[in-house]
Every structure is written in structure tokens, then in C-alpha cells.
Amino acid sequence: MELFEEIRRDARRGDAGVRELARRHGVHRRTVWARTFTDPRLRAAIIDRLTFARSATAH
């Protein structure tokens, strides 16, 4: 339980992507993804970042 809170706290900072968070905490990327998507604010922030990244690479 404490690990998941650490993952969410690090994700809120926004200084690392899913891969980096998984490496830092020694878990699989799917674990990071699932734990950050349980928080609606993080879910919105992640979707915004993904949308921006996709639109930046599309041009």
C-alpha cells in the first residue's frame, strides 16, 4: 500500500514518465499505469501529456 502511494506521489510531481517511475520503484509499467489511473487528477494529467506528446510527434 505504501509503495502505491509513493508511485502516485512521484507521478503527481510530473518529473518522470511511466517507464522511469517503474524503474525507480522496481515494478512493471502496468503497475504504475494502474496505480496512477486510480486517481482522477493524475488520470487527467497523464492523458493531457499523452495527447500533447502525440500531437507534437504528428507534425
Helix-strand blueprint:
Blueprint: H1 2-13, H2 18-25, H3 29-36, H4 40-58
Helix pairs in contact: 1-2, 2-3
Largest sheet: none
Number of helices: 4
Shape, please? globular
According to DSSP, the number of beta strands is: 0
Low-confidence parts lasting 5 or more residues at pLDDT below 50?
Answer: none
End-to-end gap? 41 Å
The chain-level mean pLDDT equals: 78
Question: What is this structure, in a nutshell?
Answer:
With 59 residues, the chain is mainly α. The protein is built from four helices and no strands.
Structural write-up:
The chain has 4 helices and no strands. It is an all-alpha fold and 59 residues long. The radius of gyration is 12 Å and the shape is globular. The chain starts with a helix and ends with a helix. The model has no long low-confidence stretch (mean pLDDT 78).
Protein traits:
mainly alpha, 59 residues, 0% strand
